[in-house]
User: What shape does this take?
Amino acid sequence: MAAGSRASGGGLTFETIQGIEMNIDKEIDTRGLNCPLPILKAKKSLNEMQSGQLLRVVSTDPGSVRDFQAFSRQTGNDLIEQQTTGADFIHVLRRR
Assistant: This one.
């Protein structure tokens, strides 16, 4: 998993992923929740977003890495990046 960095400014959150700075349109914190709750919360958030927007999900469930890979394949939402930062598993999805 590639490392990324995050900055916030002017109400917008930017994620540097593989050297490319991307605007994160929405972020949800699912720390402390286990499967299937991080996926269900991500699905709800993605349904409220427009096509092409980016969702960042922060989870502490190690199974979320595999879960989000399967979710992406099943729904057609692009899994742009996954990374581990300390105890957090971070997933960035692009709304289809």
About this structure: Residues 64-75 form the longest helix (12 residues). Residues 1-11 have pLDDT under 50 and may be disordered. Strands lie at 4-9, 12-17, 20-24, 26-30, 54-59, 78-85, 88-94.
